[in-house]
Design a protein that fits this description.
The complex is a heterotrimer of chains A (about 325), B (about 300) and C (about 325). Helices cover about 70% and strands about 0% of the residues of chain B. In chain B, α5 runs antiparallel to α6. Chain C is globular. The chains are: A mainly alpha (about 325), B mainly alpha (about 300), C alpha/beta (about 325). Chains in contact: A-B, A-C, B-C.
Chain lengths: ~325, ~300, ~325
């Protein structure tokens, strides 16, 4: 198990390294470099001296790989640069907005699980019934509906027609706990829908496969009731393949946060990323991309650990799927 | 990262049938039939838009902006008085075009790369797989936004960006299949008979890896349509005045309280299109991958 | 010796289990009847697909439904018809009064639960004993089935054990509530020949110790000859011959049984006499021939066999067969 974890962490770091290269090159591809952006602060670009001074300040006079190394070193040391738009320190911006987005993440995971798992279990237990057909169709609908359209429809229903929830905006928890909860209900539900659909489908197919296994027949032959067979003998093995799609579902939650924070005007990290893309604010874009990757890698690492915990064959052998 | 995560998606053992039986099994499953019919309708809508649409989608009528449904405008008008129904009908063109072309490119690139990775193995395989891992750990939409910002908006750039995202999935699927098939005796027989590497890849490995690729094509078209409309919703997609569902939704959203149909109609079309391709892909998966069909084992 | 004058432990009457598939109805078990007395070992033999396993699963009502269904018959165990019990009452019988040992030791144990958990599960469930006592008894059971280091094995997972060890665990599980009847479905088929013998001896010994009756399902006539008191020979969902093991070997009466015996090497026979496999294909259960199901492969057939299906008839003490022809 120990070598399994180390293996995974090393792999995550390797991928993170590749991502920083990708991110760095992408940011360099963006039209308009920092010099042009600086023109917004009234720098005189016709003055060659000022331009070369600026280029030197941003390290743009050095070869590209040196620029990368400098950028990476600075980034690791917590110097994420300043936003070209607001002039704020990007690291500070990030940590100020982080709690808001984390709250949205938590909420969407809550919706995904509370909707997806029961739907999948019911579908599997009542397989090939009309209920199963309805639930399966619903879950395909859940993975097909675009986040932004679902958001619009829900805003129309619950903020315009029945005005019980705010159409947009975010109230900090410290300000008013109740308003805080009300303000995140719609955004988190929308973010969690895709995951709920995915979970429902995977739980169904995985549980069906497990229920057809020989060891379930053994459990029946022992005299266990259906409920304890489901809970004791089927639940854990059925969760193993489901766990592997958490990574996939998480990707949708993270990208959902970009759209949802944009349309609900929530000042989180997703909104920061979208605004940065609009403004071509590339210190912010770089930081956003790297941190999104770190986030995804951490979740995948957790998934692997969970996988190891659920499947004793991985736990002992230490390595699976490599 | 975590090859356990990706491996699991790519190495689903999928039974390999010929294309003939693929077509037969499409119709064997009702849900994919529904998807197929919707797709057919969308294609007809896109191709014959000029004959179907009641009005020119680009003619503005500033005296009749943001109107509700009327006899003249069945779905009402948009913010500059264009006929919404006509724009929704024409909008199918952009969505299908982006979905089909970017998926075609993704599939061609991905299949080729996957074949090479799986067949060559070793260091080639390792490098290719690390690259796909890198792409796969950044959510598609976020990478698309950055790329759209880098390349600039417009239909060509959106197609390029979605293709850059899409090939990795195909590469993984094909590689996984090739790794399974490569070990089978008849490939060894082909080797022994002196077939060239190129011939083995395209004549023997590719046809047998086709079933999961066909499923992925259907799913990827749906995903690409979703990505395109998301980019358009953020104003990074096709530029006005070209009619596009995502673009219509972006503007309609601001007038949600006055003319809800302005947001509902184009969004419904996006959902329908994505749903149709997912239905088709799902039916195909059921038909081609017995593992996911969910039938209990028979005794004895 | 088994007292056959007493009421039998298990009476199976006209049991019929069918599978309803898209292609048609498969009559996997098509009206079989037999008795089993306390402490007795009954062998059920036949080719795969003859319904021997399905008939055993039907006793515990472990037929997957759909597509399978017990459509007719009675399974009277200790005076009550198991087919009439509620699901809840049936659960109280399974694993408690009647236990089952399955064919595939590799897949019949839950991969994510420890051996200890799985062995003590029936005791905790049926005998309502405390966890501590259950652990103690499980360790004893594991040493009874001659598993090395039983204490350590309690915390092992199935994948850490060999096939033979897993089957020992299955046997321990089956024995854990001291059942009246154990049904063993090809318990040793998947294992090495040497381990097969060890396990069968073990099962025979354990069942004798606690007076448990045993239904031993196998396609291996050698096993039946050695371990069973009485034997049922099944073909295409029906019993074609029923006899004590001794009689079946000394005077097989049904052409199918004769064919089966001729197709296995026997030590008590002239080695020069060559083995002769039964000709023809096993029956297509969706499309059974008219008359006697065995007639297409039978070399003794007469015109009657094409049209009429023979019933079991007594030919001597403890010996019945279903055949129109007198083969001797």
């Amino acid at each position: 198990m120990k070598s399994f974890i180390i293996n995974r962490i090393a792999y995550a770091l390797l991928i993170l390294f590749f991502v920083t290269i990708l991110v760095f090159s992408l940011a360099r591809l963006l039209p308009g470099d920092p010099i042009q952006a600086a023109a917004m602060f009234n720098a005189d670009l016709s003055n060659q001296e000022i331009v070369s001074e600026l280029r030197a300040r941003y390290g743009l006079d050095k070869p590209i790989y040196i620029q990368y190394v400098i950028w990476l070193k600075d980034f690791i040391q917590g110097d994420w640069g300043t936003s070209l738009g607001s002039g704020e320190d990007v690291l500070e911006m990030f940590f100020r907005r982080l709690p808001i987005t984390l709250e949205l993440f938590a909420g969407s995971v809550f919706w995904s699980l509370i909707i997806g798992l029961p739907l999948g279990v019911i579908s599997a237990v009542k397989r090939n019934s009309w209920l199963d057909a309805i639930l399966t169709t619903t879950s395909i609908f859940g993975v097909s509906i675009p986040v932004f359209w679902e958001g619009i429809i829900l805003i129309y229903l619950f903020a315009v027609i029945f005005p019980i929830l705010p159409p947009s905006g975010y109230v900090p928890f410290a300000e008013s706990p109740i308003d805080n909860i009300l303000s995140v209900i719609l955004p988190t539900f929308v973010m969690g829908t895709h995951g709920a659909g995915l979970f429902a489908r995977y739980v169904r197919s995985s549980l069906l496969e497990v229920l057809g296994q020989d060891y379930i027949r053994t459990a029946r032959a022992k005299g266990l009731r259906e409920k304890s067979i489901l809970l004791v003998h089927a639940a854990k093995p059925a969760m193993i393949p489901v766990v592997t799609i958490i990574g996939l579902a998480w990707g949708y939650v993270v990208s959902g946060s970009f759209l949802v924070e944009y349309m609900f005007a929530i000042p989180g990290l997703g909104r920061m990323g979208v605004d940065a893309v609009f403004a071509r604010d590339f210190p912010v874009i770089q930081a956003t991309l790297v941190m999104v990757t770190v986030n995804i890698l951490l979740v995948n690492l957790a998934v692997d650990l969970l996988y190891g915990y659920l499947d004793p064959r991985v736990r002992v052998r230490g390595n699976l799927g490599q | 990262m975590s090859s356990s995560v990706f491996q699991n998606q790519s190495s689903h053992r999928i039974s390999t049938h010929g294309v003939g039986s693929v077509l037969r099994s499409i119709f064997a499953y009702r849900i994919s039939c529904v998807g197929f019919v919707i797709i057919l309708m969308l294609v007809i809508m896109a191709v014959f838009a000029p004959s179907i649409a009641p009005q020119d989608p680009n003619v503005q009528d500033l005296y009749h902006v943001l109107e509700g449904p009327s006899r003249r405008h069945l779905l009402g008008t948009d913010d500059v008085g264009r006929d919404l129904l006509s724009r929704v009908i024409y909008g199918a063109r952009v969505s299908l075009l982006v979905g089909l072309i970017s998926t075609a490119f993704s599939a061609i690139i991905g299949v080729f790369v996957g074949l090479i990775a799986g067949y060559k193995g070793g260091i080639t395989d390792m490098i290719i797989m690390r690259i796909t891992d890198t792409f796969m750990c950044i959510p598609g939409l976020i990478l698309l936004l950055v790329m759209a910002a880098a390349l600039g908006p417009g239909i060509h750039n959106i197609i390029i960006a979605i293709t850059l995202l899409g090939w990795t999935g195909f590469a993984r699927i094909v590689r996984g299949q090739v790794l399974i098939i490569r070990e089978l005796p008849y490939i060894e027989a082909a080797h022994a008979a002196g077939a060239s590497g190129f011939r083995i890849m395209f004549k023997h490995l590719l046809p047998n890896a086709m079933a999961p690729v066909i499923i992925a094509v259907s799913m990827t078209i749906g995903g690409s349509i979703m990505l395109e409309s998301a980019a358009a919703f953020l104003g990074l997609g096709v530029q006005p005045p070209t009619p596009s569902w995502g673009e219509a939704l972006r503007i309609g959203y601001s007038y949600l309280e006055i003319v809800p149909l302005f947001s509902i109609a184009p969004g419904l079309m996006i959902t329908l299109a994505v749903l149709a391709f997912n239905f088709l892909g799902d039916g195909l998966r059921d038909a081609l991958d017995p593992r996911l069909r969910g039938e209990g084992k028979k005794v004895e | 010796m088994i007292d056959r004058t007493m009421t039998p432990l298990l009476e199976v009457r006209n049991l019929q289990t069918h599978f309803f598939t898209d292609q048609g109805i498969i009559r996997a078990v098509n009206g079989i009847s037999y008795d089993l007395h306390e402490g007795e070992t009954l062998g059920i033999v036949g080719e795969s697909g003859c319904g021997k396993s399905i008939s055993a699963f039907s006793i515990l009502r472990l037929i997957p439904n759909p597509p399978g269904k017990i459509v007719n018959g009675e399974v009277i165990f200790e005076g009550t018809d198991l087919l009439q019990l509620s699901d809840r009452e049936m659960c109280a019988v399974r694993g408690n009064k009647i236990a089952m040992i399955f064919q595939e030791p590799m897949t019949s144990l839950n991969p994510v639960l420890t051996i200890g958990h799985q062995v003590m599960e029936p005791m905790v469930l049926h005998q309502k004993i405390g966890k501590k006592q259950a652990i103690q008894e499980s360790i004893q059971l594991l040493s009874k089935v001659q598993l090395s280091e039983p204490e350590a094995r309690m915390n092992s997972f199935p994948h850490q054990l060999s096939g033979g060890m897993r089957q020992r665990v299955m046997i321990a599980m089956g024995m854990s509530c001291k059942p009246k009847l154990i049904i063993a479905d090809e318990p040793t088929t998947a294992l090495d020949v040497t381990i097969q013998a060890q396990l069968l001896e073990l099962m025979k010994g354990l069942t004798r110790d606690i007076g448990t009756a045993l239904i031993l399902i196998t396609h291996n006539l050698g096993i039946v000859a050695r371990y069973a008191d009485r034997v049922l020979v099944m073909y295409a969902g029906r019993i074609v011959e029923k006899a004590t093991a001794k009689k079946l070997y000394s005077s097989p009466s049904h052409p199918y049984t004769i064919g089966l015996l001729a197709s296995v090497p026997r030590l008590d026979q002239d080695l020069k006499k060559s083995l002769s496999p039964i000709e023809g294909q096993p029956p297509d259960l969706l499309n059974l021939p008219k008359g006697c199901a065995f007639h297409p492969r039978c070399r003794y057939r007469i015109p009657k066999c094409f049209t009429q299906s023979p019933e079991l008839e007594q030919i001597s003490d403890n010996h019945e067969k279903a055949c129109w022809v007198d083969v001797h």
